[in-house]
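User: For my dataset I need records formatted as: sequence, then structure tokens, nothing else. Please produce one.
Assistant:
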Amino acid sequence: MPSTLLSTTEQQAGSKSYSANSMLRIVKIPSDESVPITEEKITLRSSSDDRSRGDVIPAYLQTASAVIDTTPLIRMTHPTTTGRKGAIVPSESLAGLYAYSISSTSQSVSSFPNIRATRLAMACGRHSHRFMGDVWIGRLGYLPGQKDGFALTNLDLSLSDIEVGSRYSPDLRSDIVDMIRQNEKVNCDIHVPEWLGNASQKNYHDGASLAALMVAMTRADGCSEEDESDEDDSSNCSSTTSSMDKNNEATNDNKTTKTKTAPMPLTEIHYASIVEGQRQNYAKVVAVPISVMSQGHAKQMAGRTNVSAPLGKSISNAEVNCHHSPISRGGNCLSFKRIVSPPEATYQGFLINVLGVMEPTQSASTTGVVTPTQKNWWTTELHGWSGGGSLSSKDVNPFHRVSYLDGFALKNTTWIPEERHVTKDDIDRANATYREGGDASNNNNVELIQTDEHGLPILTSWEHYYRLRSLPPSSPVGLLATFPLTLYYAIQHYGIVPVTVAQMLERPLRIHVVGIEKELNFVDLFKELGFLMPENVAIDMTWIVREDMFPENRDERHLSLQLTSNLRLSIVAGTYGESLNPDFDLGGPPDMIIGMNAGLFAYESWRHVISYLHHNKNIVGVFTDYNEHSGMNCASLGGWKSANSLKMNPFRQMRAMPVYCMNLPQFSNGFFYVFNEQELDE
């Protein structure tokens, strides 16, 4: 793809008397992708007059046959008072980003989709907005004006500011930008300004504020109640804020309304993937309508998928991968090719025929329903939780305690770790095994197991864990141990500051785990977290679950368990940040908040968690997601730094999951990202 040629068009706005030194730069994105994106310059009457009169762009674009829609891509921050003079100073970084297009009510409106402008909207977190026809992009905000006041002012926008998001990818992570520079051989200095990198976070929280107002107010600008559901796209109404209208004489006569149009297929929205530091080729994310998915067509569109799962060599021999065939080794990765038969059915066969932890019922031949031979930790592997409506979830009882032997229910007991704390001798033995050769003798990427300043073993792979716990490579426990090991890695990798603070205050580390569901089926498996931690590092872990997750025959809505000598678990029913106050109802404010397979966009209740972390920067939030695309969008809600923290989880589940709407690798606990990441001062 050739580099963009910057063409500049100078046009005039206002009267015929102009100041040659007063220019405003905006960017035009043509709907025709063969036409380059260009900068345009608006000549103003004077720098002191026009720039302080509000938004001049609609008047510049206005014609006799066209009405201009103004769509906020990033809403500007309005000057506010905080009780201390000078606490908030309007600046360019607080200005908004706005899109201007010909209204759908105009005779000259285009029906041609604007892929590049839509891509930019997605980069800003406006995932449901679709642009048609040519679109102009400009910046607008409040800057200090005359007599200590604030003036609504247009700001210059350069093409390089939005080129990544409009031309290449809605993924604005630094690694993606570096890859674009290398692979596309871009001549110009493309970059992502900080205000654009944080756009999704700002829009999300602005959307929360607007949603609260919508509940209490009847809007007069034509938005229906249906529009309120698009809370991540709170700017779907094409009018701007009332404060902007009051200061903008040029647009007061051009109030616009939203016209619903059918979403265009985003078959050309590029998405780049980075897996374990290796640059993958561009993939195209295809937005498949729900109606198509329900008809099963999306599965056919997905076709065959190559999934790279960088695992240790010894794990490559494990039979847990049998539902993906064939298996071939390339470098330090296992390459899976998804087979045509349903992956769930093949995994079911593995649990029944290889592990022997389940057996089909008498009606399985006709219904396909499978139940475990006895209630064990594998129960929720097939049917999951499904909002509490699955076959397996109905019998889950967190009050029932079981040992590792009964929970794993494996015939080969050498596959099961011992229920005891890891010691220094275990670490020395694991490292001695590695030095002497063993199963890992030819794997130079697996390092010796070290410990950090608090004595936590630094585990970076399943290879490390299996050697430390004296497990053979054929052991399938990693399929379930992904959950406690993910928690351990989150603490060891992202919790160095919280652990240090807790140690200094001589109190346990407080962790709130939100979004718990199927984990209730194997509560005692989380002993493994305590066993891996040094005995002098105490943890108070609280699980927050829904009210309906406790057994119906139990009146308690709170369960407290001492899992190990250094790990206490409390299970509390309620909604985090709503019926449960994180600071007062759960044993004190948390040091860390963790959510596994979170999907922050999927449930309204996550908004309370995100808001709490947004207003408490001293609390670390760590989340996992199934695939990189979902992880990138969810991580962006914590800001650009959070989006850049996205990485593969070395303790993701050791089987690839099918995903029918896009050809991307997907695993349970597949990808990590962190909000409010902290580092110790040296």
